[in-house]
Amino acid sequence: MLTAVLALTALAIVFGLLLGFAAVRFKVEGDPLADQIDSILPQTQCGQCSYPGCRPYAEAIANGEAEINRCPPGGETTIIALADLLGREPIPLDEEVGEEKPKTVAIIREDTCIGCTLCIQACPVDAILGAAKQMHTVIEAECTGCELCLEPCPVDCIDMVPVTEDIFHWKWPYPDETIAETKS
Amino acid sequence: MIRQLFNFKGGIHPPQHKAISTTQPIQPATLARQLVLPLHQHIGESAVPIVEVGDHVLKGQKIARAEGYVSASVHASSSGTVVAIEERPIPHPSGLSAQCIVIDTDGEDQWIEHGPPASNYTEMPASQLRNLIRTSGIVGLGGAGFPSYIKLNPAGSQVDTLILNGVECEPYISCDDMLMRERPEQVIAGAKVMRHALQAKQVVIAIEDNKPEAYAALVEACADEEFEVMQVPTLYPQGSEKQLIKVLTDKEVPSNGLPIQIGIVVHNVGTAAAIHNAIDLGKPLTSRIVTITGDGVAEPCNLEVPFGTPMQHLLDQCGGLRNDVDRIIMGGPMMGFAMHSTAIPVIKTTNCILAATRDNVTPPSDIMPCIRCGACADVCPVELLPQQLQWFARAKEFDRAQEYNLFDCIECGCCSYVCPSNIPLVHFYRYAKTEIWAQEREKEKADQARQRHEFRLSRIEREAAEKAARLAQKKAAVKKTAAGAQDAKQAAIQAAMARAKAKKQAQGNEPKNTDNLTAEQQQQVNKADEMRAKAQQIAESRRAQAQQAMADKQAKDKEEE
Questions:
Q1: Do B431 and A126 touch (CB under 8 A)?
Q2: Are residues A66 and A45 in the same domain?
């Protein structure tokens, strides 16, 4: 009886120490789940999910505070990828946050721009170039189409223009749709 | 010694329909009034125009230079005037437009001065030879359009076998067949240049056994050469590089690999003829043989077509289109794609223009659900699981599709051909492939956006910290000077007081003239002393109060800090 108790106690102590050591030795820095979620999000930093950027939204999902269907720019693809990662069922995009729109970039109408720098301050990826009282312009390749520059512009000189398709970026359409087209 | 032949798994035997376009010899296409030369006729970077609108150009003049490693030059295919450099529809499944140089021909068809290079190619350094092929704008004429000079660079590998691909396995197409029948000497001459460039040990020319005339012509043409001309049994898609290598050598090209890794290079016979023209005659690539065929065209034939000729012009030359034409396909019925208009020009990769009638095309209404018969897997020449791939593409599970080696699919169309439910399987794979590429591009862009956003956040944080530090420094400096001024004031007061005290002491505290005082005087003195003591006491207490207040204030300041 006593031997058994002692043996079990000894085992408990040994494994406790082992686990304690492992917890210290193999401690994971940061939040790997949030990182993984963040790498799936489209990084538009648009805040449509009601979080101030993609990273905070990723952390909210990781902590179970937010649903996976609050990212309109990512759309269906992102929701499926997130559902895959988290082992959940994909759900349709939350209507409250907006709808999936075709990709756009901001273009500044340069003859209307007054050089107020407000859009430069609003841009989450530093994609607008300019200085006070100088004309501003958007670096199209860097623009994520988040629309955050539209609201602060005092003269409404920024337009969201759909990204033009060329032969290098063209995608074959989903087959069923083409079938439907040829039917009609 | 007769080479032993091997098999690849799968494959199909679709009806050939080749005889309809081989009844007449190759004819030159009539010159179109306007030529539209796309800058993107090959795999890789688009060429960059080096002419301007209004320039007069001669046939064979370079009008756009190759940009980057994987690229090819574009040459004027007839003489005339450049009238526009603008976006025009090009042969592409999307029907989208891309940059083109538009030339109004002058009807002279005048060649630019050209001739064989000064030195024989056997004396040229390998890099110069390749550069000549590059500047001649030569790309693979079999259909893919990969710049040929890259495939003529052994890049340190030992090339064992150079295979000339004259298989032409796809139905309807007969341009390589006609080329081999009529111009076998060009093919052989080009093969010699290629053999020299690659230092290949042996050369094999493969021809399917449905082209006996071409086989005979080539055998005759290379009677005094050590080239092996092989007849291979007809089987689609044997003309695909990897399948042909398997048939001739029993070697398999690794997944995601290139034939050069196993010491083999494959070139199309048309490319060989083009290289002969460039190296031995100094003529850049300005035209190619195109098969104009299909049930929808009146007189099917093979034409030697200058690049940029609108397809409608060629169809007119072949007697025009029948009324029941459903679509115009560039390439064959298995791998080609429909054109959105007949104004689209012929480019370097246009081997065939197929006018398909309604009877040739599966109506979409006949598409049925998959019955899991497995016929597609039986015929797949790459040994994939077409049915599984189709499910994954349909469900947009692109990761799974890639796990099942979607990118090894050569889009030959065997699976769609045998599918009893008429499912457009290849369309699903093409959809999945382009979707995966698009996702990869988006991922790259997202990573860049994340990096820029994080940099911006850290910059804002750093700027705020710097601003706070500056403010604190300024505040400290102000306080120091204020405290210094107060100290000086205090010191002055102290000094004044000390001076007064010293003066007092020097004067002596004892009042003078106090001897021999009358009682009355003594009383007055006492009274004065009393009042002075009282005043001193009041002053003392006031000073103490002031000191206390100052101490409080200082303490308060300190707290605020």
A1: no
A2: yes
